[in-house]
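User: Fold this; C-alpha coordinates only.

Assistant: Input:
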Amino acid sequence: MKNIFIFLLCLHSFFLFSQTMEVGVGINRNTYSCSEYPSFSFSSELRPQLFIGFYDIKVDWLRIGMEFNFSYYDFDIEANYDGQVGKYTTIAQIDKSLASLALFPINFSLLQKIKFNLGFEMSYLLHEKYTGTQSGYIVYDSGLEFFTDNLEEKLSSFNSKSYFGLKAKIAYDIYINEKVNISPQYSYYLGLSDEFMHFPEYVKSRKHFFGVGIQRKF
Protein backbone atom coordinates (compact mmCIF):
# COMPACT_ATOMS: atom_id res chain seq x y z
CA MET A 1 0.00 0.00 0.00
CA LYS A 2 2.85 2.39 0.85
CA ASN A 3 4.55 1.79 -2.50
CA ILE A 4 1.29 2.45 -4.38
CA PHE A 5 0.83 5.73 -2.49
CA ILE A 6 4.39 6.85 -3.31
CA PHE A 7 3.86 5.96 -6.98
CA LEU A 8 0.61 7.96 -7.16
CA LEU A 9 2.29 10.89 -5.45
CA CYS A 10 5.10 10.83 -8.03
CA LEU A 11 2.57 10.73 -10.88
CA HIS A 12 0.78 13.74 -9.44
CA SER A 13 4.07 15.67 -9.17
CA PHE A 14 5.05 14.92 -12.78
CA PHE A 15 1.55 15.87 -13.90
CA LEU A 16 1.90 19.30 -12.28
CA PHE A 17 5.26 20.07 -13.95
CA SER A 18 4.62 18.57 -17.39
CA GLN A 19 2.86 20.17 -20.34
CA THR A 20 1.84 16.91 -22.04
CA MET A 21 0.57 13.63 -20.60
CA GLU A 22 0.22 10.35 -22.48
CA VAL A 23 -1.38 6.99 -21.74
CA GLY A 24 -0.84 4.07 -24.08
CA VAL A 25 -0.61 0.37 -24.74
CA GLY A 26 1.25 -1.83 -27.17
CA ILE A 27 3.19 -5.01 -27.72
CA ASN A 28 6.83 -5.75 -27.04
CA ARG A 29 9.27 -8.39 -28.14
CA ASN A 30 12.34 -9.00 -26.05
CA THR A 31 15.41 -10.35 -27.85
CA TYR A 32 18.77 -11.23 -26.34
CA SER A 33 22.46 -11.30 -27.20
CA CYS A 34 25.49 -12.82 -25.49
CA SER A 35 28.97 -12.54 -27.04
CA GLU A 36 30.59 -14.43 -24.14
CA TYR A 37 28.59 -17.61 -24.89
CA PRO A 38 28.32 -18.04 -28.71
CA SER A 39 26.07 -21.10 -28.32
CA PHE A 40 23.41 -19.09 -26.45
CA SER A 41 19.94 -19.27 -28.03
CA PHE A 42 16.47 -18.06 -27.11
CA SER A 43 12.85 -17.92 -28.28
CA SER A 44 10.34 -15.23 -27.30
CA GLU A 45 6.87 -14.04 -28.26
CA LEU A 46 4.99 -10.73 -28.49
CA ARG A 47 3.65 -9.61 -25.13
CA PRO A 48 1.61 -6.61 -23.79
CA GLN A 49 3.03 -3.41 -22.34
CA LEU A 50 1.36 -0.40 -20.70
CA PHE A 51 2.88 3.04 -20.27
CA ILE A 52 2.21 6.49 -18.83
CA GLY A 53 4.29 9.37 -20.18
CA PHE A 54 4.95 12.98 -19.14
CA TYR A 55 6.67 15.35 -21.58
CA ASP A 56 7.93 18.93 -21.78
CA ILE A 57 8.89 18.85 -18.10
CA LYS A 58 10.86 22.03 -17.39
CA VAL A 59 14.14 21.47 -15.55
CA ASP A 60 16.07 24.74 -15.70
CA TRP A 61 16.79 25.22 -19.43
CA LEU A 62 15.99 21.58 -20.28
CA ARG A 63 12.69 20.07 -21.36
CA ILE A 64 12.75 16.36 -20.57
CA GLY A 65 10.37 13.49 -21.11
CA MET A 66 9.57 10.69 -18.68
CA GLU A 67 7.76 7.36 -19.03
CA PHE A 68 6.58 4.66 -16.66
CA ASN A 69 6.30 1.22 -18.30
CA PHE A 70 4.78 -2.02 -17.04
CA SER A 71 5.75 -5.04 -19.12
CA TYR A 72 5.56 -8.82 -19.12
CA TYR A 73 7.93 -11.28 -20.81
CA ASP A 74 8.12 -15.02 -21.21
CA PHE A 75 10.85 -16.80 -23.14
CA ASP A 76 13.00 -19.91 -23.37
CA ILE A 77 16.81 -19.97 -23.26
CA GLU A 78 19.56 -22.51 -23.78
CA ALA A 79 23.25 -21.87 -23.09
CA ASN A 80 26.38 -23.99 -23.09
CA TYR A 81 29.84 -23.45 -21.64
CA ASP A 82 32.69 -25.83 -22.37
CA GLY A 83 36.05 -25.02 -20.75
CA GLN A 84 39.00 -26.48 -18.92
CA VAL A 85 37.20 -26.50 -15.57
CA GLY A 86 34.11 -28.28 -16.86
CA LYS A 87 30.99 -28.09 -18.98
CA TYR A 88 27.64 -26.47 -18.18
CA THR A 89 24.31 -26.50 -19.98
CA THR A 90 21.34 -24.41 -18.82
CA ILE A 91 17.87 -24.90 -20.31
CA ALA A 92 15.16 -22.68 -18.81
CA GLN A 93 11.67 -21.31 -19.33
CA ILE A 94 11.30 -17.85 -17.78
CA ASP A 95 8.38 -15.53 -17.01
CA LYS A 96 8.95 -12.09 -15.52
CA SER A 97 7.27 -8.72 -15.03
CA LEU A 98 9.08 -5.38 -14.91
CA ALA A 99 8.35 -1.81 -13.86
CA SER A 100 10.48 0.70 -15.75
CA LEU A 101 11.28 4.40 -15.64
CA ALA A 102 12.58 6.01 -18.84
CA LEU A 103 14.10 9.51 -18.91
CA PHE A 104 14.51 11.40 -22.20
CA PRO A 105 16.84 14.42 -21.90
CA ILE A 106 17.13 14.69 -25.71
CA ASN A 107 13.88 15.53 -27.51
CA PHE A 108 13.23 17.05 -30.92
CA SER A 109 10.63 17.00 -33.68
CA LEU A 110 10.25 17.29 -37.45
CA LEU A 111 7.34 19.10 -39.07
CA GLN A 112 5.75 19.31 -35.58
CA LYS A 113 4.43 15.78 -36.02
CA ILE A 114 7.37 13.36 -35.99
CA LYS A 115 8.82 13.21 -32.48
CA PHE A 116 12.18 11.75 -31.42
CA ASN A 117 13.15 10.95 -27.81
CA LEU A 118 16.58 9.72 -26.72
CA GLY A 119 17.58 8.73 -23.22
CA PHE A 120 17.94 5.81 -20.82
CA GLU A 121 15.73 3.38 -18.93
CA MET A 122 15.96 1.80 -15.49
CA SER A 123 13.87 -1.27 -14.63
CA TYR A 124 13.01 -3.24 -11.52
CA LEU A 125 11.94 -6.88 -11.35
CA LEU A 126 8.40 -7.20 -9.96
CA HIS A 127 7.83 -10.93 -10.40
CA GLU A 128 9.64 -13.94 -11.79
CA LYS A 129 8.91 -17.59 -12.43
CA TYR A 130 11.40 -20.03 -13.91
CA THR A 131 11.71 -23.73 -14.55
CA GLY A 132 14.51 -25.75 -16.10
CA THR A 133 17.74 -27.59 -15.45
CA GLN A 134 21.46 -27.03 -15.29
CA SER A 135 23.61 -30.04 -16.10
CA GLY A 136 27.19 -30.89 -16.97
CA TYR A 137 30.40 -31.85 -15.21
CA ILE A 138 33.22 -30.30 -13.18
CA VAL A 139 36.86 -31.32 -13.62
CA TYR A 140 38.74 -32.22 -10.44
CA ASP A 141 42.22 -33.72 -9.98
CA SER A 142 40.53 -36.97 -8.99
CA GLY A 143 38.30 -37.05 -12.08
CA LEU A 144 34.97 -35.73 -13.35
CA GLU A 145 31.91 -34.99 -11.25
CA PHE A 146 28.66 -35.02 -13.22
CA PHE A 147 25.58 -33.13 -12.04
CA THR A 148 22.00 -32.31 -13.01
CA ASP A 149 20.22 -29.63 -10.95
CA ASN A 150 16.65 -28.36 -10.97
CA LEU A 151 16.80 -24.55 -11.19
CA GLU A 152 13.74 -24.04 -8.96
CA GLU A 153 15.26 -26.14 -6.19
CA LYS A 154 18.83 -24.88 -6.56
CA LEU A 155 18.28 -21.11 -6.90
CA SER A 156 16.20 -18.66 -4.88
CA SER A 157 16.26 -16.23 -7.83
CA PHE A 158 17.44 -16.48 -11.43
CA ASN A 159 16.85 -13.03 -12.94
CA SER A 160 18.68 -9.85 -12.03
CA LYS A 161 16.71 -7.52 -9.74
CA SER A 162 17.42 -4.31 -11.69
CA TYR A 163 18.37 -3.31 -15.24
CA PHE A 164 19.78 -0.33 -17.11
CA GLY A 165 20.06 0.56 -20.77
CA LEU A 166 19.68 3.17 -23.51
CA LYS A 167 16.34 3.91 -25.13
CA ALA A 168 15.27 5.61 -28.36
CA LYS A 169 11.71 6.39 -29.40
CA ILE A 170 10.01 7.72 -32.53
CA ALA A 171 6.35 8.72 -32.74
CA TYR A 172 3.97 10.30 -35.24
CA ASP A 173 1.31 12.62 -33.82
CA ILE A 174 -2.17 12.55 -35.38
CA TYR A 175 -4.03 15.57 -34.02
CA ILE A 176 -7.69 15.23 -33.05
CA ASN A 177 -7.80 18.87 -31.95
CA GLU A 178 -5.37 21.45 -30.56
CA LYS A 179 -4.94 19.63 -27.25
CA VAL A 180 -5.48 15.94 -28.02
CA ASN A 181 -3.63 13.65 -30.41
CA ILE A 182 -3.14 9.94 -31.10
CA SER A 183 0.49 8.87 -31.31
CA PRO A 184 1.56 5.60 -33.02
CA GLN A 185 5.12 4.86 -31.91
CA TYR A 186 8.12 2.55 -31.88
CA SER A 187 10.88 2.33 -29.29
CA TYR A 188 14.11 0.36 -29.00
CA TYR A 189 15.92 -0.51 -25.77
CA LEU A 190 19.61 -1.47 -25.72
CA GLY A 191 20.37 -3.25 -22.46
CA LEU A 192 23.74 -2.54 -20.83
CA SER A 193 23.30 -4.60 -17.65
CA ASP A 194 23.20 -8.38 -17.23
CA GLU A 195 19.80 -10.08 -17.46
CA PHE A 196 20.53 -13.01 -15.16
CA MET A 197 22.26 -13.56 -11.83
CA HIS A 198 23.51 -17.01 -12.79
CA PHE A 199 24.86 -18.75 -15.89
CA PRO A 200 24.39 -17.48 -18.60
CA GLU A 201 24.84 -14.28 -16.57
CA TYR A 202 26.27 -12.05 -19.32
CA VAL A 203 23.14 -11.98 -21.49
CA LYS A 204 21.96 -8.50 -22.56
CA SER A 205 18.41 -7.51 -23.55
CA ARG A 206 17.25 -5.86 -26.80
CA LYS A 207 13.60 -4.74 -26.63
CA HIS A 208 11.32 -3.71 -29.50
CA PHE A 209 8.03 -1.96 -28.69
CA PHE A 210 5.18 -1.01 -31.03
CA GLY A 211 2.25 0.86 -29.54
CA VAL A 212 -0.17 3.74 -29.61
CA GLY A 213 -0.76 6.48 -27.07
CA ILE A 214 -3.31 9.20 -26.45
CA GLN A 215 -1.74 12.55 -25.54
CA ARG A 216 -3.31 15.53 -23.81
CA LYS A 217 -1.63 18.95 -23.76
CA PHE A 218 -2.14 21.37 -20.87
